[in-house]
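Re: beginner question about structure tokens

> Can someone show what the tokenized structure looks like for a real chain? I only ever see the sequence side.

Sure, here's an example I had lying around. Input first:
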Amino acid sequence: MNPFAYLRDNLAKLRWWIGSPAVTRFHLNRALWEAGCPWTRLRPEPLARIVPGSDEFPDAIAVIRPLHGRRGTSLEPDELLAVLSIARFTNARRVLEVGTFDGHTALNLAGSLAADGRVVAIDLPPEGSPRGPAGTALPTEFGARAYDGHPAAARIRQVLADSATLDWRALGGPFDLAIIDGDHSSRMVAGDTRGVLSVLSPGGIVLWHDYEWRSVARVIDRAVAAGERIAWIAGTRFAVGIFPDPARSAARFDG
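And the corresponding structure tokens:
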């Protein structure tokens, strides 16, 4: 292909890109999480290197309601498959999710776990939280979830609460796997991480979504500098940590 013609054709698309900020933001962000951001301490690594053997189990992974998600906000297909691979490979029985959003991740986790597996999903109640600017509410976005009406919903316990004031011990842990994808401010990422670690089984795994956000990376990178074992899964926005002693690690997460 003529490189000048290629450049000309792409420059001609600038007007469309400028007029579609959400699309532009999504693709620029994707380039960052594929290649690694200059402000993050970690660089992307293949999942098989982070969790050896996680890509070798013989059973297929089925995605439930695969077209339900919202691009740019729900998990991307590669991200969902990475989460399900970890859950299946580690034989997780109890999974904790902070930030239910549309419920698509909770649904697929519930459908992939063993018969006695359970997912506890935390999200804000319909009236929101009083933590917004000047005391305004931060409402939860979804009245209906992807798991509504699906048989796997019987394995999901939806908890409507603000994680900043949550009694973590009342959630029914300890948990083998946790996903943190709630409030993305550094303060809340650190607080949610400490809360999760307080109910995580020794050797349990924590996944943080949107690691490429500065506010999320700031918390995780400080923990890495302090000696925590955390990696960035290539092709995803997920950082993942393995915690032999969750209680000791909790002190290394601050906002």
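Each token stands for a local structural state, so reading them left to right follows the chain. Strands lie at 44-45, 94-98, 118-123, 156-160, 175-180, 200-208, 230-233, 239-243.
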